[in-house]
Design goal:
With 246 residues, the protein is of the alpha/beta class. The protein has a 6-stranded parallel β-sheet with strand order 3-2-1-6-7-8. The chain starts with 18 loop residues before the first strand and ends with a helix. It has 9 helices and 8 strands. Helix content is 39%, strand content 12%. The chain folds into 2 domains: 154 residues, Rossmann fold, CATH 3.40.50.1000; 62 residues, Orthogonal Bundle (DNA polymerase, domain 1), CATH 1.10.150. Strand 2, helix 6 and strand 3 form a beta-alpha-beta unit.
Length: 246
């Protein structure tokens, strides 16, 4: 018996689509909360202390305020204090990441197993991101890399969750328009980033160690199409993402 081809259609109106994976980095592909974030936060606070001549408590408070208000401490420092972004990123991420890395085993195998192009979309700086990807074994599997230096729209920094930047990435990767050849998926640990990505037209997957239940089921709100503990669960989720089924 010859089966007729499926007529299932995805949410964008096309047939089953291949996927292009946009991966966040910290707390998505590795556990940055284990030690990495602490090292970065310390260096950022020290930078603010030196350049703005503040005591440690005031510098740490300002760092947190800018992160909460702008999505990145760097943006607040640039806007209000004229900080040089290249120097800030270099000084705050200049340390040995391998000593602080905590990641699952088998990520290199996942890179080979997971079908579809893989793109990095991280608010971290490019050099740091490259060192982390090499440390977790994914540097050969992730092609285009959009770190914070490349998140510009009309000459202005627009890191996640900026909707304008997320839409611009779809255009850069030739995934925009009424009938794109593939479907973009953002895999991220941050709900605000995922909510904006959903509005921009991405499929969305939340990575959280508190996840429960099947990774195939829509959970956590209309802007999420999956919730997983580990990126190694993505192959099981992929069929649903290709069709847009919930």
């Amino acid at each position: 018996m010859i089966r007729a081809k499926s007529n299932r259609r995805c949410e964008t109106g096309g047939r089953v689509q291949p996927l292009v994976w946009f991966f966040d980095l910290d707390n998505t592909l590795h556990d940055a909360s284990h030690a990495m974030f602490s090292a970065i936060d310390t260096r950022m606070t020290e930078y603010v202390q030196r350049h703005l001549q503040l005591d440690r408590e005031a510098a740490d408070r300002l760092r947190r305020t800018y992160w909460e208000r702008y999505g990145a401490t760097l943006l607040g420092l640039m806007r209000h204090h004229g900080v040089d972004p290249a120097r800030f990123l270099r000084e705050t991420h200049d340390f040995d990441v391998t000593a602080l890395l905590r990641a699952e085993r088998g990520l290199e195998h996942l890179g080979r197993r997971l079908a579809g192009r893989k793109v990095l979309l991280s608010n971290a700086p490019m050099d740091y991101a490259g060192r982390v990807l090499r440390g977790i074994g994914l540097h050969r599997h992730i092609g285009n890399r959009y770190a914070v230096e490349r998140m510009r729209v009309h000459g202005h920094y627009r890191p996640k969750p900026a909707l304008s930047m997320l839409r611009a990435m779809l255009i850069r990767e030739k995934l925009a328009g009424r009938s794109p050849g593939a479907r973009a998926v953002l895999v991220d640990d941050n709900a605000a980033n995922l909510k904006a990505a959903r509005a921009a037209g991405y499929a969305t997957v939340l990575v959280t160690r508190r996840a429960g239940g099947s990774p195939r089921r829509l959970v956590g709100g209309a802007y999420l199409m999956g919730r997983i503990r580990s990126v190694k669960q993505l192959p099981a989720l992929a069929p649903r993402l290709r069709t847009g089924r919930r």
